[in-house]
Amino acid sequence: MIMMVDQLLVKRAAKGDAHAFLKLSKQYQRGLYRVAFGMLGNEHDAADAVQETLLKAYRDVANLRNHQQFKSWLYRILTNRCIDILRQRQRTTPVENVWKNEAVENNWDLKVDIANALAGLDEQHRTVVVLRFFQDMQLGDIAVVLNIPVGTVKSRLHRAMKKLKLSLSTAEEGRVGGETIDLC
Questions:
Q1: Which helix (H) or strand (E) holds 171?
Q2: Which domain holds residue 136?
């Protein structure tokens, strides 16, 4: 749900007010970039995905039926674009410097392990993890963004966390004196 001010900006943007859309894009740009970088693991691709998302949103905002769903609609455009980029690549790029946790902050080995574990997930599982933990989205919002039931979001997140735990425990066994991190 977006705030009243945002709703007014969306209505104005839908009527062709470029200044209103610019205000909206500035407001959401940082969050969009975090999600794109989390999904793509590459600054250049993330910036391109955000730019293409905002361009598409600007073109199509007049067709948005429910202005209260602007944020979810915007993130859906972004995740679809990121998925397209990942499919075009046909390979996974390790994600670096995206996990925000005190146990990780000053431990380079752990950062690399988490980035590699995240990169090892398939796109469906990586997407829900990025939206949940990097964008701090609620399960219901993720369901709207991905256009899937909340139960599917829960099961994907559960499976992703199991895979991440397994991958991280395997990586930790390879290091002597490694720090552990609780993912739940």
A1: helix 150-173
A2: 94-184
What distance in Å separates the CA atoms of residue 107 and residue 137, rounded to the nearest whole number? 26
**CB-side neighbour CA atoms (13 Å) of 89:** 16
Res 65: pLDDT:
85
Tens digit of each residue's pLDDT (9 = 90 or more) over 107-146: 566 667 777 788 888 889 988 988 888 777 888 888 888 8
Question: pTM of the full predicted structure?
Answer: 0.56
Burial 95-111 (b: 16+ CB within 10 A, else e): bbebbeeeebeebeebb
Instruction: Look at residue 83 in the predicted model and tell me its pLDDT.
Output: 86
Of 114, 144, 145, the closest CA to residue 41 belongs to 114
Residues 53 and 70 both lie in one domain: yes
Q: In 15-149, which residue ranges form alpha helices assigned H by DSSP? A: 18-40, 43-60, 70-89, 102-105, 108-119, 123-129, 139-146
Residues 87 and 102 in one domain: no
Q: Which domain-ending residue is among 47, 64, 93?
A: 93
**Cβ(113)–Cβ(171) below 8 Å:** yes
